[in-house]
Structure formats: structure tokens, C-alpha cells
């Protein structure tokens, strides 16, 4: 934890943030007072959910878990049960497969941290429900920008493998990529997780990339 400090710009004492180490340095991840939106990206079994849960736990805030997956078969039921065992007790769980923006507007309050796991299943649900994916994504991003409390989103990076061999899979990959870009732009910070190791992508002081 980093001690309180007096801001040189405002002259006011700043709140104690929750912090963790990313890339070998201390990085603020969730502020105890004030909104802080975070996107945690990674591939399958990358450790992204575990990392996101750790952020929420270390915040010391009341933990709300928004589950977007549904147990449509035995294998999915086993996955959900494994996630429940992993995060342990102390969470209030809300299941919502489609109307994510409305849930966030209702559940995000000061003193809480809301963890959404995950955006990829949410996107899949929208697709099979024949919802307007672009409109729903825009609604979610607009909501993120107005949230009054900390929120963490978990999402899959699906565009780093081979090109899918069918139209549906390619369309989903493209939709996921666009959603990740939009949410990343809306969030205060973005962290990529691979092999359980976090890499801070936003904010990034090294953005002056040029020829």
C-alpha cells in the first residue's frame, strides 16, 4: 500500500489506493475512493480471472461478481463450479447473460468493486440471442465512463492464433477484437495477463511511438 500524499495540483490529501506490482514496479490498480475501471485481457488459462479476483480482494471493497456464463451443459457447469471454488467466499454473485450495462448501472456504488467475468461469454450470448452487438457494446462503453465505483472486466484475447476456418468463428473473432478495443478505450487501465504474469498496457508512459 502507498501512504496518503498531498496533491501538488489541488493541495488536497489524496486517498490511499490499493496497489500491486506489475512489470516489477508498484502500480495503482484500484482507488478506494473514486471510480477506477480496469480491463484484464488474456488467453485461455492465462490466469486473467485469478489476477482480476486478486485485484478485487486487495481493494478491501465489497465484492460483487457478475457472471455472464450459463451452465448449458455439464462441461460448462464444471467450469463455473471451478471458478466459484477459486474465488472463495465473500462475494455477492449476480448472473446476467445479456443486459450487462443495466446491471452495472444498478450495482456499481461507492464502497463496492464489481468484477465482470467475462465479456467474451457476454458477446457470445448477444450473438446467439441475435442482439445488435455494436449497439450493446456502445451502450456498455458509455456506461463504463459514468460508473461511480470500481469495476473490473475480464475478456479473452482471441485474435493471436490461427485464422478460423469458418465464417461464424471469423466473425466472432472480429467482434471480440472490436469489443476489446472499445472497452480498453473506455477503461482507465488495461492489463494483459500471460502465464499468470501481468503486463500493464494502459496507462503507458511510453506511447510516443513514431518512425
Task: For this entry, give a set of tags.
211 residues; alpha/beta; Rossmann fold; 7-stranded mixed β-sheet; two-stranded antiparallel sheet; 6 helices; disordered N terminus
Report on the structure:
This protein has 211 residues and is α/β, with parallel strands linked by helices. It has one domain: P-loop containing nucleotide triphosphate hydrolases (Rossmann fold, 3-Layer(aba) Sandwich). Helix content is 36%, strand content 26%. The strands form two sheets. The chain has a seven-stranded mixed sheet with strand order 5-4-6-7-3-8-9, sandwiched between helices. Strands 1-2 form a two-stranded antiparallel sheet. It is globular, with a radius of gyration of 17 Å.
CATH architecture designation: 3-Layer(aba) Sandwich
Q: Summarize the biggest pleated sheet.
A: 7 strands, mixed
Number of strands: 9
Number of domains: 1
State the low-pLDDT regions, or none.
Answer: 1-28
Helix content: 25-40%
The CATH topology name reads Rossmann fold
Gap between N and C termini, in Å?
Answer: 39 Å
Q: Brief description of this entry?
A:
This protein is of the alpha/beta class. It has one domain (31-202): P-loop containing nucleotide triphosphate hydrolases (Rossmann fold, 3-Layer(aba) Sandwich), CATH 3.40.50.300.
Amino acid at each position: 500500500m502507498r501512504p496518503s500524499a498531498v496533491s501538488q495540483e489541488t493541495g488536497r490529501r489524496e486517498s490511499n489506493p490499493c496497489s500491486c506490482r506489475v512489470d516489477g514496479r508498484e502500480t495503482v490498480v484500484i482507488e478506494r475512493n473514486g471510480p477506477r475501471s480496469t480491463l484484464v485481457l488474456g488467453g485461455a488459462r492465462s490466469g486473467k480471472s485469478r489476477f482480476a479476483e486478486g485485484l478485487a480482494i486487495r481493494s478491501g471493497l465489497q465484492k460483487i461478481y457478475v457472471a455472464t456464463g450459463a451452465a448449458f451443459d455439464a462441461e460448462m457447469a464444471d467450469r463455473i463450479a471451478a471458478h466459484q471454488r477459486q474465488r472463495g467466499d465473500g462475494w455477492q454473485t449476480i448472473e446476467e447473460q445479456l443486459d450487462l450495462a443495466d446491471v452495472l448501472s444498478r450495482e456499481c456504488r461507492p464502497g463496492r468493486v464489481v468484477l465482470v467475468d467475462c465479456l467474451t461469454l457476454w458477446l457470445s450470448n448477444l450473438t446467439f440471442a441475435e442482439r445488435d452487438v455494436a449497439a450493446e457494446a456502445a451502450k456498455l462503453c458509455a456506461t463504463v465512463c459514468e460508473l461511480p465505483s470500481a469495476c473490473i472486466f475480464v475478456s479473452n484475447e482471441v485474435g493471436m492464433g490461427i485464422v478460423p476456418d469458418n465464417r461464424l468463428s471469423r466473425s466472432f473473432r472480429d467482434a471480440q477484437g472490436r469489443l476489446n478495443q472499445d472497452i480498453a478505450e473506455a477503461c482507465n487501465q488495461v492489463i494483459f495477463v500471460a502465464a499468470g504474469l501481468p503486463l500493464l498496457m494502459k496507462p503507458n508512459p511510453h506511447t510516443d511511438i513514431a518512425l
